[in-house]
Amino acid sequence: MRELYPEIEPYHQGMLPVSELHTIYFEESGNPYGKSVIVLHGGPGGGSQPLYRQYFNPELWRIVQFDQRGCGKSIPNAELEENTTWHLVEDIETLRKHLNIDSWVVFGGSWGSTLALAYSETFPEYCLALILRGIFMLRSLELSWFYQDGTSYIFPDAWEQYIMPIPIDERSDMISAYYRRLVSPDRNVRSQAARAWSIWEASTSKLIPDTKLIEKFGTEEFAEAFARIECHYFVNKGFFSSEDQLIKNIDRIRHIPTVIIQGRYDIVCPMITAWELHKAFPEAEFIVVPDAGHSMTEIGLRSALIQAGDNFAEEDIAKYIS
To answer: Per the residue annotation, which of 113, 266, 278, 295 is the catalytic one?
Structure first.
């Protein structure tokens, strides 16, 4: 089992205006002359984390993170206007140019895997490799499984808390019911809905539930941006032209070295989605971790992700040692 690399601090942080409304936070850590990797956080709305830096050898990698529109340290917080998948794809490209990076490895899990696929299919020429975990393609079946009918059979106790803010006559479409509350002008209504939405995800993310994660997701500071932005994307079907857009465009990235890593018991992003991506993209290495759920901190997923990063770093390794 692989252990995380030591904690490190960024050597460069900044705020980058990407529109008249939005400014995104970004940071760089590791080796400024190393191979570049862009780490795409989940959610949408989850924000970057210091922990992500520890998945990469800091002597070999130039590790770039940013907070997507409306979350983390990006401003304005929880803003839904001008916040779509394609705005984020353009933000990634704007950041690449701002940092004078010719090309990079793209690393993303959960919603980060969705965004990684959308970015790489739009700008394949700038992608050295892809490391994808907990595959999510934002299709109706995936959303229904988690927010309507499926996960509820495995976590009925947590489900009771999730549905509590929604009257019985609105529960046939939970995402829409939550969206109405998450955009309510009443702060108390928004806060109650945001906490319940966020706690539901935290309660189901690990094979063994993590009370500290649940507490974090339940804080008002985190929950409002996370729940509002997620629900906004889900109501709008990810802003894709068709449900299978990412699969249909897979030929655009078939040549890019790719690793797909999936927890067998991932309840948030069940394995069928990763399996279907694997079948459409057999050129990619496909790794199933037999004793893991959704969270990248689970031992098997952590080890597979670190090893994938090490494997890609080893190409021209001497070039990246300062």
So the answer is: 266
